[in-house]
Amino acid sequence: MINMNLIVTGASRGIGKAILLKFAAEGYNLAFCSRNINNLNALKEELFAVNKDIKLYFESCDMSNKMEVEAFAKNALAAFGHFDIVINNAGIFLPGEINNAESGDLEKMMDTNLFSAYHFTRALLPGLQQRRKGHIFNICSVASLMAYPNGSLYSITKFALLGFSKSLREEMKDKNIRVTAVLPGATYTDSWQGIDLPETRFMKASDIAETIFNAYQLSDRTDIEEIILRPQLGDI
Ligand SMILES: NC(=O)c1ccc[n+]([C@@H]2O[C@H](COP(=O)([O-])OP(=O)(O)OC[C@H]3O[C@@H](n4cnc5c(N)ncnc54)[C@H](OP(=O)(O)O)[C@@H]3O)[C@@H](O)[C@H]2O)c1
Hints:
Elements: E1 5-8, H1 14-25, E2 29-34, H2 37-50, E3 56-60, H3 66-80, E4 85-88, H4 105-131, E5 135-139, H5 152-172, E6 178-184, H6 205-217, E7 226-229
Parallel strand pairs: 1-2, 1-4, 2-3, 4-5, 5-6, 6-7
Helix pairs in contact: 1-2, 1-6, 3-4, 4-5
This protein binds NADP nicotinamide-adenine-dinucleotide phosphate.
């Protein structure tokens, strides 16, 4: 059994879950959260079915709430002692444009998509810096690079998360901590529920997980700074 610990936020479904399944198969101990505890309990069984020898820590946490974010980081550290890989994945998409969005939607997405990563990373950085070791992945989006119709507010939050990643990378260079921004295009998860397109038009969440695993395998002399992934047929 390898003694490597990964922590990922918003992981009961979609890309986060795919990351857990991949790293479970590779023998990593896993800490994770989402809001719905029933889904996490079900996921626990799935992960142990993949690998019964790993350790799991999970709790219900609303990543848009600073106090809950800090408590999750503290509890997970108490359970595992340290983390080798931190993945800021929790995020939501609310459609809307600056011109016509519901009041409060931007604030809600900033809390979930940006401030979650900011508070969570800050809570874990002291341990990473002390060990002079670690890799932080931030799940941004192709919407971090350009605006899409009816996705303006989401784009604002994902541009900000990419900016956060760039700034953090600069700060962490001489601390031997790698920072990678992952920018997926349309990936088949619950976020696309109801869309009238075949599943094959989308990327697989497991491909994002494989990519993250492979980026982590390089020596600590190399940081893959940004990874852009799109469906073979392009954006949706
Ligand atoms: N799917 C895509 O096409 C795509 C493309 C580019 C980027 N992304 C990004 O990839 C990330 C994951 O997306 P996904 O498509 O996998 O999403 P998803 O299938 O909708 O799953 C979202 C996960 O996050 C959890 N979550 C949502 N809000 C949360 C909160 N406030 N606190 C804690 N957990 C929360 C959900 O569980 P609960 O509801 O139980 O909390 C669920 O486990 C997001 O940052 C998204 O912006 C997705």
